[in-house]
């Protein structure tokens, strides 16, 4: 066991504070990673505040981890000391079910994957995330960060990047397809970048036009304010794919009406409260409402390689660990463009 510094929420809704945690000894197939950067995802806030149900406390959030390998187990073949690597939302799964065998570890059928934090590992111990100095992870749940991406802008790709890349690929975003991205935040800004790089015609649907210049700079072809009722009349029946990145209830009927025949609205934001869907909205044009989690390990590596090829890093604001609580408040106020990243050297 190794003792490392970390920032943890000691109880639900409590401010995060500096503490120490124990990391397991490096096993035969484990990789020890010196964390260099950790992104702050809205999911961290939901979980630290018990918004998605009872959590495990003290809780060390963080599932957007970028760092350098500092030690490997005797059986490790994929990585060596000095490699640039990342860890995303999961650190294990059953490895036996049909989904795991198909590279869909995020949809593991035997109780789901083991999440990077706020979960219990196979050893019965709680998992702790990336707001810390080091992490030990099985090599099969580590990905390589290409040289074309700096570690700070790569860290958010481990959640925000794969969460948007996976559904865009699954629903075939590309040339000839019209994609709308709802919300221009941590997820949405990567959705715009990736959809544009895939060759789709991209529209941002945001509450106001406040971020229009940013949206167009990031790759959007069009930008509309959803606070304007004319938007929903003008864009009715327009889109093949609507990628909803907002973690709040919406008037889903209004958005579904923006889909073309056989279009799909994919939800990657997860509200804390139940939402209502009016099925009649979908019947007329064979429209679909769906959802998507993250991606599997292989697809996460594919996403990183794609982002490196197209020079797609996250738009970040780098902060010291002593500003994590301030960052949480600003995320909730929508005051970040577009992802806070913790410099782990300050932990």
UniProtKB/TrEMBL annotation:
Keywords: Metal-binding, Oxidoreductase, Zinc
SUPFAM superfamilies given in the database record: GroES-like, NAD(P)-binding Rossmann-fold domains
EC number, UniProt record: 1.1.1.2
Enzyme class: oxidoreductase
Domain annotation Enoyl reductase (ER): ranges: 14-342
Catalytic activity: a primary alcohol + NADP(+) = an aldehyde + NADPH + H(+)
Entry cofactors: Zn(2+)
Record-linked CDD domains: CAD1
InterPro entries registered for this protein in UniProt: ADH-like_C, ADH-like_N, ADH_Zn_CS, CAD-like, ER, GroES-like_sf, NAD(P)-bd_dom_sf
Pfam families: ADH_N, ADH_zinc_N
Domain of life: Bacteria
Record-stated family: Belongs to the zinc-containing alcohol dehydrogenase family.
Name of the protein described by the UniProt record: alcohol dehydrogenase (NADP(+))
């Amino acid at each position: 066991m190794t003792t490392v510094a970390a920032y943890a929420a000691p109880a639900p809704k409590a401010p995060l504070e500096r503490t120490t945690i124990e990391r397991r000894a490096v096993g035969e197939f484990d990789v020890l990673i010196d964390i260099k950067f950790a992104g702050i995802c809205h999911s961290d806030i939901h979980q630290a505040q018990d918004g998605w149900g009872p959590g495990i406390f003290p809780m060390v959030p963080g599932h957007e981890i970028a760092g350098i390998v500092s030690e490997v187990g005797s059986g490790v073949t994929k990585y060596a000391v000095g490699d640039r690597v990342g860890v995303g939302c999961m650190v294990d799964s059953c490895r036996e079910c049909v989904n795991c065998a198909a590279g869909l570890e995020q949809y593991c059928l035997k109780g789901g994957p083991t999440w990077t934090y706020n979960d219990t590992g196979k050893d019965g111990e709680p998992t702790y995330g990336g707001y810390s100095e080091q992490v030990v992870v099985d090599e099969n749940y580590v990905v390589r960060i290409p040289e074309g991406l700096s570690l700070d802008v790569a860290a958010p790709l481990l959640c925000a990047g794969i969460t948007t890349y996976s559904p865009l690929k699954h629903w075939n975003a590309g040339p000839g397809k019209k994609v709308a991205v709802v919300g221009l935040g941590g997820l949405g800004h990567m959705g715009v970048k990736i959809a544009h790089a895939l060759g789709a015609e991209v529209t941002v649907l945001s509450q106001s036009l406040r971020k229009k210049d940013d949206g167009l700079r990031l790759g959007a072809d069009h930008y509309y304010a959803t606070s304007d009722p004319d938007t929903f009349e003008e864009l009715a029946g327009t889109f093949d794919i609507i990628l909803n990145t907002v973690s709040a209830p919406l008037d889903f009927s209004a958005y579904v009406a923006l889909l073309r025949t056989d279009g799909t609205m994919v939800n990657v934001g997860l509200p804390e409260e139940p939402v209502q869907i009016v099925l009649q909205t979908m019947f007329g044009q064979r429209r679909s409402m769906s959802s998507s989690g993250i991606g599997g390990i292989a697809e996460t590596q594919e996403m990183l390689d794609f982002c490196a090829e197209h020079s797609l890093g996250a738009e970040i604001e780098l902060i010291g660990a002593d500003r994590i609580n301030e960052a949480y408040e600003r995320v909730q106020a929508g005051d970040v463009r577009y992802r806070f990243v913790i410099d782990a050297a300050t932990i």
